[in-house]
Amino acid sequence: MYRTRKLPTEEELYPVALRALMRRGHSVHEMRVALEKRCDDELLVRRVMDRLKQGKMLDDARYAKEFVRLRAVYRKQGRFRIARDLRARGVPDRHIEDALESVFAETDEGELLRKRLQRKLRLLRGTLDMRKRASLYNSMMRAGFSGEAVRRALKELAAEEADVPAADEDDAGPDLE
User: Model pTM?
Assistant: First the structure.
């Protein structure tokens, strides 16, 4: 295993921070940890962090909103999972709550849950027995949806399955017996 070279000056540390931000967005906490790995001088790290904040390259509120939007729309994750992931990245709760409120005001969490369930159902083979339902339930819980919403969606799914054969029988025509 190799060691990263410690950088002694701001002129060397600042480009490291910019390259990290070019790869992906970082929270203030993540950037501080990354810079502290590359530099032992806490004052130097603080100066680079201040410079990034003044240049509006680091902003936890903007980072949280973009993170929530991407996770909700593309990964179809629920509030609880997204909030947990943001807390793990060191984003303050006030930014997390604001971002969740603004994004989920525009996005229907129930619709995200249904889409994610439909995607999972396409991968399942055979009938939907209790084990598969439990697996789906646990998967949706890990994805960050509330237990109540998951149970409601699974009940709707069961009701749809029960209605499908009944609808086919009705379409068969009148009973001739």
Answer: 0.80
